Amino acid sequence: MTWTVAPEPHDSPVAAALWRAYYTEVSDRWYQRFEGRTTDPDELEREIAADTGAYLAPPNGTLLVARHGGEPVGTAGVRLLDAATAELKRVFVREEMRGRGGAPLLVAAAEDAARALGARRIVLDTRNDLVEARTLYARLGYTETEPYNDHEYAEHWFSKRLEGVRV
């Protein structure tokens, strides 16, 4: 089976299902880490609804969906923070598909999308407990940097120069 990555409307049913899977996983990990429980269902619904992902819509953003054998299994998005800087958002691959090459493919496609938006640098934030994500970013050439935002859950910030044009 082969991987494909293509733009997807941020408000499509596919995007919504992958956003729900992503948010459920990272929220449950946080609550299990700090409170020994999963996310309250009402809170989960409020938080998923509160972040529509509209910032991943053109002309200043892009949401990408990875498919394996035609099935949607992952996402990555980029949005411009300024004329030269893009932010990597919502990098996620369903657990059962991890370790098969989808995440690096998604990140490379997101970097290409950032270049297409005019960015020369890409940044991201992540949490301490998302060890797999931090390992992935380091392996793909991202370096830890000073905070560029004050997001309440951000504990690590990364940056990468987008050299050349791969688009």
Automatic annotation (TrEMBL):
Residues 17-163 form the N-acetyltransferase domain. GO terms for molecular function: acyltransferase activity. It comes from the Bacteria. Keywords: Acyltransferase, Transferase. Pfam families: Acetyltransf_1 (PF00583). Gene3D superfamilies: 3.40.630.30. SUPFAM superfamilies: Acyl-CoA N-acyltransferases (Nat) (SSF55729). Its EC number is 2.3.-.-. Coiled coil: none annotated. This is GNAT family N-acetyltransferase. It comes from Streptomyces yaanensis.
